[in-house]
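Re: beginner question about structure tokens

> Can someone show what the tokenized structure looks like for a real chain? I only ever see the sequence side.

Sure, here's an example I had lying around. Input first:
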Amino acid sequence: MVQEMALINRKISMVAAASEALTYRKKNPGSDSDRVLRYISKNVAIGKDEMTKIGMIAAASEALSIAEKQPTLNEKEVIRMIMGNIPNILSNINSY
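And the corresponding structure tokens:
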């Protein structure tokens, strides 16, 4: 039960980080991905365990990549894609 809650919290944190990355990029259009991810790491991932931080950075990076490759998508559509891809993101993190 505790592990289930930790996983749910990790997934929620990942979606929140992806959303925050898109919002930051929108408010700071000259920001490159590295700057956005540093912002996420320093301001959004505070107080999270190491695996959650890694997941948040990975989800934020994926959101930025999707938004760059498919600029016609709105934030909600990108977040929906991230939510569907969270199992793959977590799997890739766990394989390291």
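Each token stands for a local structural state, so reading them left to right follows the chain. The chain has one domain: 8-94.
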